[in-house]
Design a protein that fits this description.
The complex is a heterodimer of chains A (288) and B (374). Chain A has 288 residues and is an alpha/beta fold. In chain A, 32% of the residues lie in helices and 22% in strands. A seven-stranded mixed beta sheet of chain A has the order 3-4-2-1-5-6-7, sandwiched between helices. In chain B, the strands form five sheets. In chain B, strands 7, 8, 9, 10, 11 and 12 form a six-stranded antiparallel beta sheet that branches. The longest helix of chain B is centred in the middle third of the chain and has 21 residues, at 163-183. The chains are: A alpha/beta (288), B alpha+beta (374).
Chain lengths: 288, 374
């Protein structure tokens, strides 16, 4: 079992003929993901890695029955591409594209909510389930291994770092998902924690947060209030960041007293969630 | 991107919102001339991009042209909350009977826009929001249907004002929404929204923050984008070179890939007792970008040693290694570095660095510990 995706996920790649789309289609296929079709407007009829390309998601979906889309289109076209995927009826849309105008992201996330489509991202490394060899996104498959830890993260490379430690410790991951580094994201910690709670493969959860916003505080509150049944360990990046400086991600900024690492660490401590000081400490704190 | 007050007011004025009579001065003589031409007491307002400038002495009042000149001379070139004042907005001093507040902002948690309005505007609005949140009216906009006349009137009617005022406030909120949409703004705020003795509403102060991700749709800000008031010189330089860079006050230079991993690298430097000199996220591993990153960090005088922490998921280590070596070769100043490089083609990367005499450490912790010894 896994969350959101599994070995039966039938995937369409939007923006498949671009450099990124081609490269990651090859990586995903190599990992084992069932990519059945691709879309680039005006490139219908071509093939990429033997995968047939269509002009629209609707056409691709009608011919191949897809349920999941992964999007590599440029930011300026992301809104249109997302609406297209949502209206074609995909259940899950993984938006790799970064730096999407907030207005556009707000609109397609609202449309997705209305239609019941799950949006992962934007600016996400994607989602991976090592046991079913399903990788949807740009994560490097080789740092992951099948196992029992669910990872949900606001980061990309830091997630690989932590996943690597967990793999080295012989524990492995159930499903690992990046929420995305753009200001507006389709998923949040709480929704993913709910899914991990109900997932048999997941025995414990690693939550990777960072400074800025209050998503970690809300997650801590949720864990405390629901008496969350599985062990959770947190890591917060940006403990040493000064206020008012945006540390790369759009959301990673301390404004006044809001969004500080200490506020998040305190919230987790109150909820009984250990917070690792170093990425390498996480495996020892995981009590599974 | 934060706009200056005078830029924000110009936009609001273009959309029909009344703003005080004003002009920009970069020299005391200009402030004097503007005041003389206006023939009334003025406010001299430092054009800097940090909030709270009034309380920090960045706004002064002059009753005549000579006083305006003298005050302008003391303000221009001074530093307010760490920002050097280069220009002033010289503005007619408003006579106001009430101070309101109105804004529209992106609400990331709600994944929508939130409209805020209050009859308790002014410099203490943040304290008001914390202490008496019920004095601020909130409305979340449905992104799929937008913000209607009806919505605006409904919010205004919750403010306990006369019907006439409510109508005026509703039309101002509608304008804020239109500006937010047209300019791809993250925030459009009027505070205070002054009510004059004759019952008119004037934007006494205004803030607009544009969405950086949408600047490509607003080419008129292209030049302006490179001259952000809030950047240090090195940050501005990095921005031109498309590097994500933040100056910090320590002595350990940091280069990482990915915002989260780079922040974690800074944090570990702290844990091990050091202080980072900067944050630099290369994003990926292109040779040219890595080279620029190495040159930029090496050239910062305060930097004693550099940590490079690259976890190449899809980033190719051989390209990163080439970028590092090219950067080191071109750098006029040589400083010790400790590299952690893991991912695709890591053996080739290690070989390239080995030939250049650069050692690779197997983990970020070891690389950082080593850099602190260097």
């Amino acid at each position: 079992m896994s969350i959101i995706i599994d070995k039966n996920s039938k995937v369409v790649v939007q923006g498949i003929t671009g450099n990124e789309g081609r490269f990651h289609t090859a990586s995903m296929l190599k990992y084992g993901t069932k990519i059945v079709t691709g879309v680039t407007p005006g490139k219908g009829g071509q093939e990429v890695q033997g995968i047939p390309v269509y002009n629209t998601v609707d056409e691709a979906a009608r011919n191949h029955g897809v349920d999941t889309s992964v999007m590599f289109v440029p930011a300026a076209f992301a809104r249109g591409a997302a609406f297209e995927a949502i209206h074609a009826g995909v259940k899950t849309l993984v938006v790799i594209t970064e730096l999407i105008p907030q207005k556009d992201a707000i609109e397609f996330v609202a449309e997705a909510n209305k239609r019941g489509t799950i949006i992962i991202g934007p600016n996400t490394p994607g989602i991976i389930n090592p046991s079913s060899r399903t990788l949807i996104g740009i994560t490097p498959g080789h740092v992951f291994s099948p196992g029992s830890v669910g990872i949900v993260s606001r980061s990309g490379t830091l997630t690989y770092e932590i996943a690597w430690h967990i793999s080295q410790a012989g524990i492995g991951q159930s499903t690992c998902m990046g929420l995305g580094g753009d200001p507006i994201a389709g998923m949040d910690f709480i929704k993913v924690l709910e899914m991990f709670r109900d997932d048999e493969e997941t025995k414990g959860v690693v939550l990777i947060g960072e400074i800025g916003g209050n998503a970690e505080e809300l997650a801590a509150q949720y864990i405390a209030e629901t008496n969350y049944p599985k062990p959770v360990v947190a890591y917060i990046a940006g403990r040493s960041a000064p206020p008012g400086k945006r540390m790369g991600h759009a959301g990673a900024i301390i404004m006044g007293n809001a969004g500080t690492a200490s506020s998040k660490i305190e919230a987790f401590s109150k909820a009984g969630v250990p917070v690792a000081e170093k990425p390498s400490d996480i495996t020892n704190l995981l009590n599974i | 991107m934060k706009l200056f007050e005078f830029e924000a007011k110009k936009i609001l004025s273009d959309y029909g919102i009344r703003i005080p009579e004003s002009d920009v001065a970069t020299k005391p003589e200009k402030a004097e001339a503007i005041t003389r031409a206006m023939g009334c007491p003025v406010a001299l307002k430092s054009q800097i991009l940090v909030a709270g400038r009034g309380k920090a002495g960045g706004i002064r009042f002059a009753s005549d042209a000579t006083e305006a000149k003298n005050l302008a001379a003391s303000l221009i070139g001074s530093s307010i909350k760490g920002n050097v004042v280069t220009s002033l907005l010289v503005e007619e001093k408003l006579n106001m009977t009430e101070q309101f507040y109105a804004s529209i902002a992106v609400d990331r948690q709600a994944k929508s826009y939130v409209v805020l309005a209050s009859t308790s505007g002014g410099v203490d609005i943040e304290e008001t929001a914390l202490a008496t949140p019920d004095r601020i009216t909130r409305h979340w906009i449905d992104p799929l249907t937008g913000f209607s006349e009806q919505d605006a009137l409904e919010i205004a009617s919750r403010l306990n004002t006369s019907q006439d005022d409510a109508k005026k406030l509703a039309s101002i909120m509608k304008v804020l929404y239109k500006v937010t949409m047209d300019y791809d703004a993250e925030l459009v705020e009027i505070n205070p929204l002054a009510k004059t003795p004759s019952g008119e509403f004037i934007a006494a102060d205004a803030r607009i923050i544009l969405d950086d991700n949408a600047l490509f749709r607003h080419p008129e800000f292209k030049e302006r984008e490179l001259e952000r008031g809030e950047d240090t010189q090195r940050e501005a330089e990095a921005r031109k070179q498309k590097l994500t860079y933040v100056d910090l006050d320590g002595d350990i230079g940091i280069i990482g890939n990915g915002a989260g991993l780079t922040m974690a690298t800074l944090d570990l430097v702290h844990v091990f007792g050091g202080k980072p000199a900067n944050f630099l996220d290369t994003g990926g591993g292109r040779v040219e970008i890595i080279k620029k990153a190495v040159l930029l960090v090496m050239s910062k005088p305060e930097v004693k040693a550099v940590v490079i922490n690259i976890l190449g998921g899809i980033t190719r280590c051989d390209l990163v290694a080439r970028g590092i070596v090219e950067g080191l070769n071109e750098s006029a100043i040589k400083k010790p570095i400790a590299v952690r490089l893991m991912g695709t083609n890591e053996e080739e990367g290690a070989q390239i660095l080995h030939q250049a005499g650069v050692h690779i450490y197997p983990s970020m912790e070891e690389a950082i510990r080593e850099a602190l010894k260097l």
